[in-house]
Specification:
With about 210 residues, the protein is α/β, with parallel strands linked by helices. It has two domains: about 1-75, no CATH class; about 85-200, Rossmann fold (3-Layer(aba) Sandwich). About 55% of the residues lie in helices and about 10% in strands. It has eight helices and six strands. The protein has helices spanning about 1-15, 20-45, 45-75, 90-100, 115-120, 135-140, 155-165, 180-195; strands at about 85, 105-110, 130, 145-150, 175, 200. The protein has a six-stranded parallel β-sheet, sandwiched between helices. Strand 2 (about 105-110), helix 5 (about 115-120) and strand 3 (about 130) form a beta-alpha-beta unit. Helix 1 runs antiparallel to helix 2 (about 20-45). The longest helix has 29 residues, at about 45-75.
Length: about 210
């Protein structure tokens, strides 16, 4: 029976190949296919073979639809995203959702990964790509990169910028959306411009709805 099973399985594999592949391999498979088919039909009831074939095709089709679904779900993450948002507190997460609702794909990052995962879990089907490291976040963005910083003003902003700098390229854009002291904005603009980065200080208002 094991011999018959293997032979019939080979027959199914051959039958599922594209037309061109069948023609190319038919002379390799044909003798064994004929021999196994004759033996199988004489030993195993036709009904059993039919049931086996139906089950096989069902599994193949289910696997196909599963692959299509997975590809659809992962399609956004397989390409580069248009903008990134750092900081998934109330303002940051809602701005990310607001931007996404305008048709943009958005990478999101938070220093504590649980907040990043929380945003994704609460918003299934959105064009949001979770990132769990600064390097992953930066690499997920199309160039020139556009990164919106929604972190606390002051030292937290400086630390975030410092963590981003090793992975940035000239021409990338950093947008500070925090309520930053203007002298800090001037300093950061000067420092980052010297490295070839573009820096924009633009405090964001509008509340948690992200208007």
């Amino acid at each position: 029976m094991e011999f018959i099973y293997r032979g019939f399985n080979s027959l199914l594999k051959w039958s599922s190949r594209p037309f061109q592949a069948k023609n190319a391999l038919i002379w390799d498979y044909l003798p064994s296919i004929i021999a196994i088919s004759v033996i199988a039909i004489s030993v195993v009831p036709i009904a059993t073979l039919v049931r086996y074939y139906i089950c096989y095709k069902l599994v193949v089709h289910l696997s196909y639809f599963h692959r299509v679904n997975v590809t659809y779900q992962l399609g956004v993450s397989m390409s580069k995203q248009q903008i990134g948002v750092v900081g998934m507190a109330v303002m940051g997460r809602n701005l990310a959702l607001n931007i996404e609702s305008r048709g943009y794909s958005v990478s999101i990052f938070n220093r504590s990964s649980d907040k990043t995962d929380e945003v994704i879990a609460e918003n299934p089907g959105k064009k949001l790509v979770p990132c769990h490291s600064i390097e992953e976040f930066v690499n997920s963005l199309e160039k020139p990169r556009r990164i919106l910083l929604m972190v606390k003003a002051g030292e937290a902003t400086d630390k975030t910028i410092d963590s981003l700098k090793p992975y940035l390229d000239k021409g990338d854009i950093l947008i500070d959306g925090g309520n930053t002291y203007f002298q800090d904005t001037i300093r950061r603009n000067k420092d980052l411009s010297a490295l070839g980065f573009n820096f924009i200080g633009t405090g964001v208002s509008g509340g948690e709805e992200g208007h």
